[in-house]
Amino acid sequence: MDSALVTINDILVERAGRIILNIPSFDVREGETLALVGQTGAGKSTLLSVLGFALKPDKGSIFWRGAAVGNGRPGSDVRRRISMAFQSPLLFRGTVQDNVAYGLKLRRIPAADVNRKVTAMLDMFGIGNLATANAASLSGGEAHRVSLARAVVFDPELLLLDEPMASLDPGTKDNLMKEVTKIVKELGLTCLYVTHSREEAYAVADRLAVIDTGKIVQSGSAEDVFYRPATASVAAFVGTENILPAAVVDTEGGLAQLRIIGAAPETSIEAVTDAAVGATVTACIRPEEVSVDPAEPGATGSRRNHLTGRVTDVTVLGPTARIAVDCGFPLTALITRRSLGELALAPGTPVTAGFKATAVHVIQ
Question: Residue ranges of the alpha helices (H) in 194-344?
Fold first, then answer.
């Protein structure tokens, strides 16, 4: 997974004088599933088109396994090694079997091999019973399975998935996402998975890249990006709801005392950081790292940070609940719905909010 399959350098894409992509260097590595995430309009699909050789950039170089591709346009040999599936399945007239066999026939695979590969792929995606069904009669979930099977059946060297689950209901999406992840791993495919869903990205990715206004602002493991975001905008995108401007007022033994800017002067929190006294930083705390307790006025277990305040809002989100607390500055906690009932939390309830110093990620 270390060698690059596709590499781009100094890529620039402009439209009507507006920069759509500006990426100094980026690659997709052999055998990995790379999730590319970002808000709508961030440049995800444009970058996917460049990496898949469907769009020639205005400037820059593209390499396939280290070999430069002339003018960003590969020959048919390279293009035939790449497949793609979209948010909306684009199925042809005819049967499910006809659709899945299309790419193989285009590549002039012998008929016996076509039948064998198609049958195996339909079974792998759980749609073997639909082989002779008319593609126009399929449900949304079935159509997605056919589209993905067609994209995977000829063992592409690069599989491009552009928001493949976006139009599915949650139950269908969760099941199909697990199946696709398993199939990609079993077949050893290299996959670029474009999505605006951070939950999807976290679930499927070996590596995750965040794109914002046409630039890659962070890439790394999902754990790194979610829990050690490089910027406040990345932190917000990956669900770090507590993003607090702060000043370092004291340090000792790797712990820093951070005064929250805009809160009362005496309001501070502790964090693990090497930031120097006097530095202005951003303190990021994921909501699931914050506990709330209406009964305990002091410290909460091993948590070094314990702040008194009042609940200002409660939002139930199915099995979880988001609790907004005013503790001199706004703080959000994410707890289970059961805990919400057991703690009898409601707007106006006095609480102690607690979190560990290690739960605070400091952006310098």
Answer: 198-204, 222-227, 232-237, 337-343
Q: How far apart are CA 193 and CA 265, in angstroms?
A: 46
Q: What is the pLDDT of residues 282-325, one digit of tens each?
A: 999 999 999 999 866 554 555 789 999 999 999 999 999 999 99
For 170, 174, 209, the CA distances from 38, given in Å and listed in that order, are: 20, 20, 9
What pLDDT does 113 receive? 92
Residue 56: C-alpha distances to residues 96, 149, 276 (Å): 33, 28, 46
Which amino acid, residue 45?
Answer: S
Query: Around Cβ 183, how many Cβ atoms within 10 Å?
Result: 17
Which tens digit of pLDDT belongs to each residue from 251-273? 998 899 999 998 887 789 999 99
Location of each CATH 3.40.50.300 domain in the chain: 4-236
Which residues touch 74 (CB under 8 Å, ≥6 apart)? 53, 64
Which pLDDT belongs to residue 40?
A: 87
pTM of the model: 0.88
Please give the Cα distance from 329 to 310 (Å, whole number).
Answer: 11
pLDDT per residue as tens digits for the range 114-152: 999 999 999 999 999 999 999 999 998 999 999 999 999
For CATH 2.40.50.100, the residue range(s) in the chain are 240-363
Q: Look-up: residue for tokens 């695979």? A: 109
Q: 4-236, superfamily in CATH?
A: P-loop containing nucleotide triphosphate hydrolases (3.40.50.300)
* pLDDT for the residue 299: 46
Q: Measured between alpha carbons, how far is 258 from 166 in angstroms, rounded to an integer? A: 40
For the 240-363 domain, the top CATH level (class) is: mainly beta
Amino acid (one-letter) located at 357:
A
